[in-house]
Amino acid sequence: MRIAVIVAMGVVMLAATSFAQGHQGAMGVWVLNVEKSTFEPGPKPKVQTSTFTLLPDGRVKIENDSVDVEGRTAHREMVSTFNGTAEARAGSAQPTTRAYRWLDDLNFEFDETIGGQRSVTGRTTMSKDGRVRTLTVNGTRGGQPVHNIEVYELRK
Questions:
Q1: Global pTM?
Q2: How far are the Cα atoms of 32, 33, 59, 131 from residue 149, in angstroms, in the given order?
Q3: Quick check: 126 and 26 in contact, CB under 8 A?
Q4: Could you tell me which of 22, 34, 71, 147 has the fewest CB atoms within 10 Å of its CB?
Q5: pLDDT at residue 17, rounded to an integer
């Protein structure tokens, strides 16, 4: 019985590791190309980066750093299981959750909730060479419609 439990645990860990390795191409530091991006209603940030780090247990740490047009900095971060579960996002002005889920090895989508109300949905599309990620965000924030097309380039 004990051997069966050990074998089962090994199979689960191997499956989790291989699942996580399949998403390695989505990890890294992604820098917003401000000129190629659109933010409606705006304004665009001066600088924005998103860092995706695969953790040993298969979860992903997501850190977003930005500087707005007035020079104010912001840092938001969270850890996600990428299974569609709403998880807290620290650093936002209001209580915010995001529920991330993988669409394939490189692309994902998320649903965002602010103050308990559904806000926006985001969906990524990766370029064939894996160096450009386009994030399309639609919904509402603060009662205003949001439609962003955010173009990120992988920093090497």
A1: 0.85
A2: 10, 11, 26, 16
A3: yes
A4: 71
A5: 41
Q: How far is CA 105 from CA 20, 21, 24, 64, in A?
A: 9, 9, 8, 21
Rounded to whole angstroms, the Cα distance separating 144 from 27 reads 31
Residues of the chain with pLDDT under 50: 4-20
Q: What is the DSSP string of 8-69?
A: HHHHHHHHHHHHHHTTGGG-EEEEE-TTT-EEES-PPPSEEEEEEEE-TTS-EEEEEEEE-T
In whole angstroms, what is the distance from residue 107 CA to residue 109 CA?
7
**Residue 107, domain CATH:** 2.40.128.20
Cβ-contact 133, 124 below 8 angstroms: yes
Domain count, the chain: 1
Count CB-CB contacts under 10 A for residue 114: 20
For residues 111 and 102, the answer to whether their CB atoms sit within 8 Å is no
Domain interval for residue 33: 2-155
Give me the pLDDT at residue 23, please: 84
